[in-house]
Amino acid sequence: xxxxxxxxxxxxxxxxxxxxxxxxxxxxxxxxxxxxxxxxxxxxxxxxxxxxxxxxxxxxxxxxxxxxxxxxxxxxxxxxxxxxxxxxxxxxxxxxxxxxxxxxxxxxxxxxxxxxxxxxxxxxxxxxxxxxxxxxxxxxxxxxxxxxxxxxxxxxxxxxxxxxxxxxxxxxxxxxxxxxxxxxxxxxxxxxxxxxxxxxxxxxxxxxxxxxxxxxxxxxxxxxxxxxxxxxxxxxxxxxxxxxxxxxxxxxxxxxxxxxxxxxxxxxxxxxxxxxxxxxxxxxxxxxxxxxxxxxxxxxxxxxxxxxxxxxxxxxxxxxxxxxxxxxxxxxxxxxxxxxxxxxxxxxxxxxxxxxxxxxxxxxxxxxxxxxxxxxxxxxxxxxxxxxxxxxxxxxxxxxxxxxxxxxxxxxxxxxxx
Length: 418
Ligand SMILES: Cc1cc2nc3c(=O)[nH]c(=O)nc-3n(C[C@H](O)[C@H](O)[C@H](O)COP(=O)(O)OP(=O)(O)OC[C@H]3O[C@@H](n4cnc5c(N)ncnc54)[C@H](O)[C@@H]3O)c2cc1C
What we know:
The protein is α/β, with parallel strands linked by helices. About 30% of the residues lie in helices and about 25% in strands. The protein has a domain at about 55-100 and about 135-195 and about 270-360: D-Amino Acid Oxidase, Chain A, domain 2, CATH 3.30.9. Flavin-adenine dinucleotide binds near residues 15, 42, 48, 354 and 379.
């Protein structure tokens, strides 16, 4: 009889795949269970940015006022759908509680370290000849058109420099020099040279194939319905395709994490933050660097020979409706910054959408459940899950092995809202 330790990873998004990757490296026998086909989650169509620049969580000063101001604009980039849903109300109250300078300053160094660990791990993954996912280490440009956005971003850049990140403030001429093929209609930019980007669709596909080749059993179209527990442990996982058992369970689940947690008698608040993306041509007036259009909150990423344009954050229930008004808002923003890129409104079938798993304090959940001693939770990464996938996966494997952790995780305690 084999005495290899076994783990079940619930959810095959980037967090689940990376957890499986590092668990396998550490000698675990891994099964991934996913209710979909691994292509319909949040981890493929996103903007592909690896973002040490995002050391400020979403729950930050100013976001509450912006959310309220934008609530009544159908093309706005950030939107909270008003509702009496008690889950949304309680999430919103926690968000407001955490959106202050003291909290943001407290968590910034830990978040920076988590991002830098992940970027380092991405560099190592990119060196694996079996994985080719378009990793490019040339940073991200935060482009601004107005004095106000410039002042705010330069303030963030100064904080980033104090935290030791590689960041440069650029005037119009300097940023234009970085994009020689296309005209930029901006006042200036901050170049977060510490950031990087990838083609996430390729990463997800190749990681899946790689894990299969390593012997990972991937069960798709298999929904976790309930947990059998005994003696403070998860004993069994009941799914639409039968019962599974393992020594250890890793609960990911993205925007569906709260329902999964509830099935195990736990409270882990996450609201879905819906966003859209689509691909456009990048042959004429070629864009070289990824960018965030600051006033519009739109992300532009050159990948796989094209450009991915993405944006909006609609906090509300999970649904499959594509709000073309908001897609139009994204489309309208692009030529304001890149005048030669007169983007056409995509066909509805060409619009991808995904649900960012947003925790109320903007920090991920990484750690053991206090209720079930053989359950690790990994989720709630909001707008940074792609970037933080490898670090999260590595930490999951380190927790599983009870070995020393690559970075401190006390701010990410999954039991913090119990
Ligand atoms: C427009 C947009 C742009 C973005 N850009 C970036 C970016 O540039 N950089 C970045 O870092 N992040 C970005 N993000 C965020 C990032 O995509 C997410 O944080 C990340 O994909 C979350 O990964 P996950 O594995 O937690 O969740 P998911 O990818 O959603 O995976 C969760 C999985 O769990 C499965 N699951 C759920 N419930 C069950 C159940 N009961 N039984 C079985 N399986 C279940 C689901 O089927 C799903 O496959 C962006 C998001 C959007 C929407």
